[in-house]
Amino acid sequence: MVKVPISSRSVMGRINSFIKKLGPGLLFAGTAIGVSHLVQSTKAGAEFGFGLTWALLIAILLKYPFFKFAPKYSIATNESVLHGYQKLHPIIPIIFFIITLGTMFTIQTAVTIVTAGIANSIFGNILSIEVWTLIILFFSFLLLIIGKYNMLDKVIKILIITLAVSTILSFLFAGANFEETINLEQVFPKESVSIVFLIAFMGWMPAPLDVSVWNSIWTVEKIKLQKQNSISNSMFDFNLGYFGTAILGICFIGVGYFTIYNSSEILSESAAIFSDQLIRLYTDNLGDWSYYLIAFAALSTMLSTTITALDASPRAMGITTELILNKEIRKGYLFWVSILSIGTLIIFFVFTSQMGLLIKVATILSFLTAPFFAIINYLLITSKHTPKDFRPNILMHILSIIGIIYLVGFSVFFLIKGV
Q1: What is the spatial distance between Cα 409 and Cα 39, in angstroms, rounded to a whole number?
Q2: pLDDT for 22-48, tens place per residue?
Q3: What is the pTM of this model?
Q4: 142 CB-contact burial (10 Å; exposed 0-12 / middle 13-18 / buried 19+)
Q5: Is the dihedral of CA 334, 340, 86, 404 positive or negative?
Q6: Does the 25-417 domain belong in CATH 3.40.50.790?
Q7: Which of 178, 190, 241, 363 could be a cystine partner for 29, CB 3.0 to 4.6 Å?
Q8: By the 8 A CB rule, do 258 and 174 touch?
Q9: Alpha carbon 397 to chain centroid, angstroms
């Protein structure tokens, strides 16, 4: 029997303890690092090189306060921001209910199909996209219903570690194989098509702002699981997940730049086909050995998004329903997970031909509601409902005001140029 040195056990113990403290921030990363990174960031690199890195960094910086305020409120009060919205005004949960009901089915269908497409590509078309969609949705459903938050927390940590390692390695290997001089010049698109892409790229980086509500709910669940509440641990967890999305976003830009930029390849608008193109192009550039590296980076990216999205919307809808009806609903989470799963399958099998339009409507709605969530989160964290010690400092106040102006202006710009 091989004995592990005491010093090694001590190090492993500290690492395990550190990982156990993480949770909602990594769930946020698992949700955010999806189509926005795999598709949009890679396309940004393929079309503009590193030229749109400025756009990624601005989006990350100016949305930061509003994503941060949600878990911070939950840490301060041990309740989700949805309860805080109710305290601000009873109409806000109703608005949130309508927004979520209008977007959750098509978004869930979209991310599940992309995940199924990647799985189909990796496993050599042994099953159809339809069968893979059923398998992935059924697996996610069982994981959430049987394992609950505790299992979700553990699975997403594995996926995020896999995603981070495989993506960073893909970026490094692609960069090492790149024979041209790397151009870091920043650009602002001038053509209308490119401007529309820029709007979508910044609007969805790192995620739609309604995801801040999900992060808040996961924070409450983590507090219940650990039976303790540490502001320093929770904020470190959030910052790690949040800024990790920026680092991996740059990595995906780099992968697109190093493997596709200046090539004659026309990238598909279909996320599933695009993923297959990306894996093939990467293999062509680096060799067959790299196939599974980028393939599992893509699969872990989308599988984490599929699972977290299937968990978060039902949690949010369950809480919102209770707030609107002013009564506790038994098995509300099970009800909404079931509704979302069934609705996803119906949309997939019945409205596949209209999927592009449905996704466009849902994503535009999420995009245009970003100022709403920014303003509400800001009002809540600065209100009497948040303990004074948890309210933002002057720097965060200034950044918040700039962020709100940016989101409102960006939405107006989108309506003028993007629709």
Answers
A1: 25
A2: 778 888 888 888 767 877 888 899 899
A3: 0.88
A4: exposed
A5: positive
A6: no
A7: 241
A8: yes
A9: 25
